[in-house]
Amino acid sequence: MLANELSAQARVIVATSTKMMTPEWCPALIDPSLGEVQKALSGSPVVCVGSIQEETGKMTQSSLAFPELLSLADYVLVEADGAKMLPLKAHAEYEPVIPECASSVVCVAGVDGVGLPVSEICHRPDRYAELAGISVESQVTPEAVAAVLNAESLHDILLINKVEDPAQWQLAERIALRCKTPVVAGSLKNGEFRCLR
């Protein structure tokens, strides 16, 4: 979604520093040269660049360095972490894998994790519970989400995703109220967002 928005006025490369599903909505260049990336960007405002992990079929980091990619595009968006398809996560000490040249870090958290047990809805539930100051059997609250995000302090902007009804907007506002960074909330699926903080 961000890549599509930016591509209306700029050239965008999507990449990963870990692993991600290969996007179907833009050209995917597997182990390309810089020249091949440049040529692809002349025909499409957004391209995805990486290698393929044979065991999983997922896209992994390209052999091209991020500064090299940045020399070809206005924006390079890097997926630097995953959460095993869960809406909430606590990070290990080696995560996220943020490129040194990154100018901004956006954390995505799913509001659909609020109200459900930490053990069921969080990647690394023991660590999440520890940072939130609750047990793994406890239900995640907006306050717990903010506590974990503030404790980790790994991002510049928070995107609260899957906010699609009035009750979810109230939950998102409660999270935003306690966060230390700017907060945007909305729905990637519906393409609707607004700044909360």
Explain how this protein is built:
The chain is α/β, with parallel strands linked by helices and 197 residues long. The protein has two domains: 2-79, no CATH class; 88-195, no CATH class. 29% of the residues lie in helices and 24% in strands. The protein has seven helices and twelve strands. It has helices at 2-7, 34-43, 66-70, 118-121, 125-132, 142-152, 166-178; strands spanning 12-16, 19-20, 28-30, 46-52, 59-60, 75-79, 88-89, 106-110, 122-123, 157-161, 183-187, 192-195. Strands 1, 2, 3, 4, 5 and 6 form a six-stranded mixed sheet that branches. The protein is globular, with a radius of gyration of 18 Å.
List keywords for this structure.
alpha/beta, 2 domains, four-stranded mixed beta sheet, 29% helix
Short description:
With 197 residues, the protein is of the alpha/beta class. It is built from 7 helices and 12 strands.
Radius of gyration: 18 Å
Quote the distance from N terminus to C terminus. Answer: 21 Å
Spatial shape: globular
State the helical fraction: 25-40%
Number of helices, counting only DSSP H or I runs of 4 residues or more: 7
Q: What average pLDDT do the residues reach? A: 94
SSE layout and pairing:
Layout: H1 2-7, E1 12-16, E2 19-20, E3 28-30, H2 34-43, E4 46-52, E5 59-60, H3 66-70, E6 75-79, E7 88-89, E8 106-110, H4 118-121, E9 122-123, H5 125-132, H6 142-152, E10 157-161, H7 166-178, E11 183-187, E12 192-195
Parallel strand pairs: 1-4, 1-6, 3-4, 7-9, 8-10, 10-11
Antiparallel strand pairs: 2-5, 4-5, 11-12
Helix pairs in contact: 5-6, 6-7
